[in-house]
Amino acid sequence: MRNSLTERRAERGWSQAELAERLGVSRQTIISIEKGRFDPSLPLAFRLAREFGTSIEDLFDPEP
Amino acid sequence: MFARWTLTIAFALVVAALIGAVASVFNPEAPLVTGLVFAAATLGPAGALGWFLFVSPKTVTPDPNAEDNVENTWLEKAASAAFVDLLVLLSIALAVVSVSGRSPDPQLLLLGAVVVAMCDVAIRYVVTARRER
């Protein structure tokens, strides 16, 4: 699943470690999501969307 | 906290002594040595169990987001695959034992199954982590 996590994180000047800390997950989790190798759980997707002030649909694209 | 650590040590000593006593009853040839060896071998795991029961509830905070981490997914994948591996391995072993009519030492068989399962999970976790990193 594609996502705009890297771009949105860069816009805010957050490091992967910083975003991971904000969400309460490991940095590896952020890396894997950004690379599209790990689909986050629904609660984590909601937290991500909330963190970036957007919706899950805007953050994630179901097209491979 | 001192009381909890004292309780942990006491718990470990009692559990190790009990297991040593039970082992010595079932091995009448050398009850003292058997009891001491089993007690010594059990002391570590019993201490760990005591720490888990009495100390960790006050010192370890559960991670509410643990299941959201990718590492959790890797472990689940590794454990699921290892379970299937173990099932296949034990089925093959059972077929071989049934056909040959020879019964292996149950202690050796169980030890082998535990070691294979643990190694399988560890190897599969590392492979999955490297592949999906």
TrEMBL record, chain A:
Q: Please give the PROSITE patterns that the UniProt record associates with this protein.
A: HTH_CROC1 (PS50943)
InterPro entries per the UniProt record, alphabetical: Cro/C1-type_HTH, Lambda_DNA-bd_dom_sf
Gene3D superfamilies reported for this sequence: lambda repressor-like DNA-binding domains
The portions of this protein that span the membrane are: none
One Pfam entry name: HTH_3
What are the HTH cro/C1-type domain coordinates in residue numbering?
A: 5-59
For this UniProt record, the keywords arranged alphabetically read as follows: DNA-binding
**Record PANTHER family:** DNA-BIDING PHAGE PROTEIN (PTHR46558:SF4), TRACRIPTIONAL REGULATORY PROTEIN-RELATED-RELATED (PTHR46558)
- The entry's protein name is Helix-turn-helix transcriptional regulator
Organism in which the protein naturally occurs: Occultella gossypii
Automatic annotation (TrEMBL), chain B:
Provide the species name.
Answer: Occultella gossypii
- Name by which UniProt lists this protein: Uncharacterized protein
What UniProt keywords apply to this chain's record, in alphabetical order?
Membrane, Transmembrane, Transmembrane helix
Source domain of life is: Bacteria
Q: Which residues cross the membrane?
A: 33-54, 74-96, 108-127
